[in-house]
Amino acid sequence: MLKITLPDGSIREYEGAVTPLQVALSISDGLARNTISAVVNGKQTEVDTTITEDSTVQLLTWNDDMGKKAFWHSSAHLLAQAIMEFYPEAKLTIGPAIANGFYYDVDFGGEPLSEKDFEKLEKKILENAKKNSTFNLREVSKADALKEYADNPFKTELIENLPDGEITFVTHDNFTDLCRGGHIPSTGIVKAVKILNAAGAYWRGDEKNPQLTRVYGVSFPKQKELTEYLERLEEAKRRDHRKLGKELGIFAFSEKVGAGLPLWLPKGAALRKKLEEFLSKAQKKQGYEFVISPHIGAKELYVTSGHWDKYGADSFQPIKTPNEGEEFLLKPMNCPHHCEIYKAQQWSYKDLPKRYAEFGTVYRYEQSGELHGLTRVRGFTQDDAHLFCTPDQLLQEFEKVIDLVLYVFGSLGFADFTAQISLRDKENRDKYIGSDENWEKAENAIVTAAKAKGLKTVTEYGEAAFYGPKLDFMVKDALGRSWQLGTIQVDYNLPERFDLWYNGSDNEKHRPVMIHRAPFGSMERFIAILIENTAGDFPLWLSPEQFTILPISEKYSDYAKKVSESLEIHDICGLIDDRNEKTGKKIRDAELKKLPFMLIVGENEENNGTISVRRRGEGDLGEMKVEDFISYFKEQAKPAFELGANQ
Ligand SMILES: [Zn+2]
Ligand SMILES: [Zn+2]
């Protein structure tokens, strides 16, 4: 009897050798029809791979990420086949599946590939796919493999790095490629394909190597899914924070100031300030204290923290003083500074936890080619805090930090998220610093806190940092894209390196545990994601320009000013549009600028002490007393969430 263990823990028995497809068939015909790949004992395989011993089997459909990976990886083979039919001189290199589709890196020789070639490739791919060919894996000797690719230096390099006996070729239709396996049952299920882009890429990502063309594509089992995907792509382009950030006057870049160094325009600064105030208020409620540290630090500080050894060579290089020969680094992270702040005073166990918060600006070198809007920059501000507590306080602190993160996500409209718990590799415990006992405590604290807060979690063993376990939040935005936000991380390393301690109840010195946490991650990245998630239509309380007052003629300018002043007193902010334009045009402009309220004032309004209110997306709300509008506004602008409400 052969035992197959399925992901839910159930065990099925078979007479003899079995394939994943047969396992699927033994469960249901429907499942068998939809199974396109499988994971057998942790390795992704084809559905017709023979299983001869007791194994764990996961059956994959298009709806599984790993299923899509097999689909897109197989599509890369179809792309390579089509390329070789049109460009027989081209040299293939590698062609993996990626998060959204696949690519193939190709040396086209002198012939570049351009957009006008995409359609013929798409047609050819579908024409070949229709032949319904299977992918057949066979082992080849290293010598034979090298012979086969004698005129392809890229594949030769790949083969040379593979151990003899582990080299396989895969053939579908008339096309063969070097490949490890993991394909769909047949090419026929690829029903729609789009070549998205062709861009330069260096062989193995190294700019000293030859430049290749990376051809990006995406494919689907149904035409409808491709159409929807392309619509989402278009929508993503419309929402691109680099485009909207400019249109809405939020941020800018200047070559003169330098690449990767964002400039916050008044509206962006207002938005950012509101976010900072929002988080500061919540942090204050949770007993955080605010600290401020300088933008640079002596190199020695980062030698102590270990950052210099680890990242020094790839960072901005030290700044030297002209006379004393001292060396300073632009602050790459706030943690070492906060350790020194902790150390500035002596603490007893009764004083803990200490929670130091700072919107700390840090500078990290990124290659210019890697820079991207606000999501990849060289200077950014973290909503940072470091908590110093006793090992026994970890659970409670973790729960509070999770509350804070949930409050932030809830208030800003991120409803769909998962939390990844990263723990130690159980087999390899000497990689980590800190005692076994403390690790157990920390890992239990994370798992227990996440459960108590009802988080949707995935647990990854071996993903913890060497200095402690962590919890990362992945949010899905309005377009279904995943972003990593907020992280909470336990650290046993820095307290050791900085020799931090507190006096315990036993009157002995003890090491505190440190927690790093940043619910937004960084202000820059968070605002970029917020812009793309809301398409610039921010929650009312956060909107940097909440109203525009539209006097119907110059005569009512003074009254408009009076209204504006009464609103400003209540922290409701906006401007007066006193351009010499028709009110209809001003309303249209305000709608385009996504301003939440348009307040129209004329003779009636002035006489009655009122305003005529229009709300974006809702239209006319009628005439209101200014005081009534203020109460209405405050009611509407209340964040829908309360801190710790889920307890
Ligand atoms: Zn393959
Ligand atoms: Zn830190």
What does this structure look like?
- The protein is of the alpha+beta class.
- Helix content is 34%, strand content 26%.
- It has 20 helices and 33 strands.
- The chain has an eight-stranded mixed sheet with strand order 16-20-21-28-25-24-22-23, sandwiched between helices. A five-stranded mixed sheet has the order 2-1-5-3-4, with helices on both faces.
- The longest helix is centred in the first third of the chain and has 22 residues, at 65-86.
- It is globular, with a radius of gyration of 30 Å.
- The two termini are 50 Å apart.
- The model has no long low-confidence stretch (mean pLDDT 93).
- The structure holds zinc ion (2 copies).
- One zinc ion (ZN) binds at residues 333-335, 386, 516.
